[in-house]
Structure formats: structure tokens, C-alpha cells
Design a protein that fits this description.
This protein is mostly helical and about 60 residues long. It has 2 helices and no strands. The longest helix has about 40 residues. The chain is elongated, with a radius of gyration of 26 Å.
């Protein structure tokens, strides 16, 4: 890979940074709400699974 001068590197970085498309405020809020809802749903799901396995293990240990 050929070495480039610091000035050329800075120009390339600015050129690439100008191609970045930032999400709108509406898209950001919508995505944040979606992530929060999914986090709650998955938390409740894993709480249920963990509770179920806890009961199963306690039942198995009570047999001994």
C-alpha cells in the first residue's frame, strides 16, 4: 500500500466524511423507541425462562 502525505490523508478523510448520511431526528427517535420496546420484551422473556429453569432445578434438587 502506497504511503500518502498527511495533507492528502486529511483531504481523503474529509472527502469520505462528507459522504456520511446522518439519520433524521424522526428516524433516531423511532429507532430508539423500537430498541426500548424490544429490550423490554426480551427482558420479560428471559425473566420467564430463568424463572422456569429455577423452578425445575429446585424441584430436581428436592428429589434428592
Amino acid at each position: 500500500m502506497a504511503k500518502v502525505s498527511p495533507g492528502e490523508f486529511i483531504r481523503q478523510v474529509r472527502s469520505e466524511a462528507s459522504k456520511v448520511v446522518w439519520p433524521s431526528r424522526e428516524e433516531t427517535v423511532r429507532t430508539a423507541i423500537f430498541v426500548a420496546i424490544m429490550m423490554v420484551i426480551l427482558s420479560v422473556f428471559f425473566l420467564g425462562i430463568d424463572t422456569l429453569f429455577s423452578f425445575i432445578v429446585q424441584w430436581l434438587l428436592s428429589l434428592v
